[in-house]
């Protein structure tokens, strides 16, 4: 241990759970907080503890929520005729921030991947089918990633839409193949979203 | 707010107290922890809360410590004849990690800066003088930053050493002017430390 404080060493070690944070960055973060921003550090500790404890998944869209129903699903001013299906909550955030989309979402929390034990059940497709059967959705926008598994997922989703007699569309080409939505710049994503095309 | 969870939005905002973390990175960190590493996030929240609460300053060297006396000062196997004086705990860590130094430290928690109200008293120079007067220190290694204020601080420290009849040395040239120890690569820092020179 290279510090005079075991608790500080513990903190540095724990900071490495953050993505992209190595030993050196974790040290800088720990020292910065203790030297210069204890109120900020205390607030972070509290909010992190609360979020880990309370944030679960919305029972309607499966996105993150501390309520039974998230604030997207509960928002009556959003367009109830549009449903955008994404793989993860990060993709949901990326679309919300990059585009003017103000419809509803459905979060698969994964993509079809039989080898990982991810099938229709794990992706909540029964919940999605029930949602489509409610009859309010007029267009389902499929925003899975343009990877092999994402494409397979999109195919299954389009079948689901057809069975429910709901129009399905996909993000326009423009999303680079093999890319992940999360890392695409806003302009490209907004363009692809605006130019989404009908599925079959 | 671009997420369906107000608590998640709060967490993203709080993560921005970390140095170098902007809006986009804070989002990635929050989603990563909630999606993939809740145990790590819980541990981080706990350790951060404990560190903010318990870690204070060693009453002997002023470095970080949750005990009255830090684990450097309490370590009888370290060389009690050497005292390295640094501006901040981060500089202390940098020297400990980059060099083979295994003597003791004294942390100024700043540098002479009258305009900021930082004078000899704030830097704990009375404590340092008392330490030198104990008679065990044979060499005081001045490792302040090579900035104008760091140089002024070094000058005052060398006077303190002379008054106590203790040999004073400085890190060798090799530390770039205007640089901060914290950001210097280990090799350069180790070299400068090994080649430290007598003051006056
Ligand atoms: Zn929801
Ligand atoms: Zn100490």
Automatic annotation (TrEMBL), chains A, B:
It holds the Pfam family RecR_HhH. The keyword Repressor does not apply. This is Recombination protein RecR. Keywords: DNA damage, DNA recombination, DNA repair, Metal-binding, Zinc, Zinc-finger. Residues 81-176 form the Toprim domain. A zinc finger (C4-type) spans 58-73. GO terms for biological process: DNA recombination; DNA repair. Belongs to the RecR family.
């Amino acid at each position: 241990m290279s510090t005079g404080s075991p608790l500080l060493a513990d903190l540095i070690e724990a900071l490495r759970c953050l993505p992209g944070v190595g030993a050196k960055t974790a040290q800088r973060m720990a020292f910065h907080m203790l030297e210069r921003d204890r109120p900020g550090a205390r607030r972070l500790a509290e909010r992190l503890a609360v979020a880990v404890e309370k944030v679960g998944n919305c029972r309607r869209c499966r996105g993150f929520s501390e309520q039974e129903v998230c604030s997207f699903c509960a928002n009556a001013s959003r367009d109830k005729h549009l449903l955008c299906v994404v793989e993860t909550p990060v993709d949901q955030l990326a679309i919300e921030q990059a585009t003017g989309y103000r419809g509803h979402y459905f979060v698969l929390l994964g993509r079809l991947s039989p080898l990982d034990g991810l099938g229709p059940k794990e992706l909540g497709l029964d919940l999605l089918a029930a949602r489509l059967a409610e009859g309010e959705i007029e267009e389902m926008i499929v925003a899975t990633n343009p990877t092999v598994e994402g494409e397979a997922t999109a195919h299954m989703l389009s079948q689901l839409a057809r069975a429910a007699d709901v129009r399905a569309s996909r993000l326009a080409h423009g999303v680079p193949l093999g890319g992940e939505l999360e890392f695409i710049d806003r302009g490209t994503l907004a363009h692809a979203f605006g130019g989404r095309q009908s599925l079959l």
